[in-house]
Write a sequence for this structure.
């Protein structure tokens, strides 16, 4: 233990004695760590961001039935367009009567329209028509006012729960509840303003209006394919709920055992799993490419340590002449290269945190430094010092003390 601590002390003394050279030596390791941790942070932030966005969109413990489901290719989309049928209100009512594993079932349709208040307008917002039961499932909830009610749905009322951005843009921050908004030229009473959802990759999630589904169908027609959301009752797993929904829809559409589904089922877990598998190769390549800079940094460390061995030949000879063994010299230079690279790892890690803070503060790029990246940065940078310090340390340990003492 004493030998180890003494080697660290000597290593730090050597680094401090040659500050500029040590810094230039560490540039490769520093930028390598910044690159690796930076890429890992953006990837981790992206996954967390997408996971939150998908969960907020689809809902936790929720299965969504729609016409297409999760499409992964253009060919799959063309095939599904030909084979799959629209989801209708009758499908919704059928599931509502028979899906025993769901505690709530809601339906919604979607269109795009212009929103206008006086001289202010938004040319294209999302208009979602929902059933009143969707209130128990929807992640969109009213910050002020209320959600769509059964009476609104039953009487096809012209009422709307508008998004935060719509209220801010058209009403200028003034209270919007109780006021009138025109959607595609038709007057709607604002019954609520939704909580702010923010943006996903720079796209606002607050430019929408929620109206009764019956009103949506009255204006845009009944040919709009719906989506039906089923929230589990907590007694059964999400997979059981999905299996029951699939069984009921296959029975309703009289599909044979070998027939493909003519509908799609989606869950937040399935989408997240698909995205992780899709991006796994990209992640591996990105981390592999950025890791090359660490190898380059390691080569620089090895070259500098070889120079250090040459410069300190007399020191090595003197230490050997007073009793230092080969392993003592080997250990000294190996610890020095490891400490040198480790310092580069720590500096690189601090810079990576600075980069992450800049990204989060001044851009819309999501970033989150994972613990494994921190541990990997320190271990890999130290490992680089060990791997690329072995040869210089071995060369120093093999020096003949007599020849070393003669060196100038």
């Amino acid at each position: 233990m004493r030998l180890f601590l003494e080697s660290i002390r000597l290593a730090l003394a050597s680094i401090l004695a040659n500050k500029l050279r040590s810094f230039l030596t560490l540039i490769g390791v520093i930028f390598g760590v910044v690159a690796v941790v930076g890429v890992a942070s953006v990837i981790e932030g992206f996954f967390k961001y997408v996971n939150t966005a998908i969960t907020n969109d689809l809902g936790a413990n929720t299965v969504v039935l729609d016409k297409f489901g999760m499409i992964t290719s253009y060919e799959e989309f063309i095939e599904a367009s030909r084979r799959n049928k629209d989801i209708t209100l009758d499908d919704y009512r059928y599931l509502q009567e028979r899906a025993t594993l769901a505690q709530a079932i809601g339906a919604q349709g979607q269109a795009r329209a212009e929103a206008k208040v006086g001289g202010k307008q938004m040319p294209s917002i999302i208009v979602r028509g929902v059933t009143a039961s969707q209130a128990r499932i929807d992640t969109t909830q009213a910050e002020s006012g209320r959600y769509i009610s059964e009476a609104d749905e039953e009487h096809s009322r012209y009422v709307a729960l508008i998004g935060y951005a719509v209220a801010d843009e058209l009403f200028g921050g003034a209270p919007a509840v109780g006021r009138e908004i025109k959607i595609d030229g038709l007057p709607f009473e604002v019954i609520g303003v939704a909580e702010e959802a923010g943006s996903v990759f720079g796209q606002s999630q607050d430019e929408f209006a929620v109206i009764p589904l019956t009103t949506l169908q009255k204006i845009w027609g009944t040919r709009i394919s719906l989506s039906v959301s089923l929230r589990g009752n907590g007694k059964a797993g999400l997979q059981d709920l999905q299996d029951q929904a699939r069984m009921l829809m296959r029975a309703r559409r009289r599909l044979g055992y070998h027939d493909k589904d003519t509908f799609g089922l989606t869950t937040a877990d399935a989408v997240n799993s698909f995205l992780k598998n899709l991006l796994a190769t990209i992640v591996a390549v990105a981390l592999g490419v950025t890791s090359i800079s660490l190898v380059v940094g390691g080569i620089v460390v090895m070259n500098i340590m070889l120079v250090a061995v040459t410069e300190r030949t007399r020191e090595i000879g003197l230490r050997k002449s007073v009793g230092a063994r080969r392993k003592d010299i080997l250990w000294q230079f190996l610890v020095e290269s490891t400490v040198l690279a480790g310092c580069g790892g720590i500096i690189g890690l601090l810079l990576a945190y600075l980069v992450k803070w800049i990204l989060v503060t001044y851009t819309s790029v999501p970033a989150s430094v994972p613990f494994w990246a921190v541990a990997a940065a320190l271990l890999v940078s130290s490992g680089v010092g060990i791997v690329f310090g072995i040869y210089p340390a071995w060369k120093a340990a093999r020096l003949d003390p007599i020849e070393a003492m003669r060196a100038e």
About this structure: Residues 85-262 form one domain. The mean pLDDT is 79. The radius of gyration is 32 Å. The chain is about 60% helix and 15% strand.
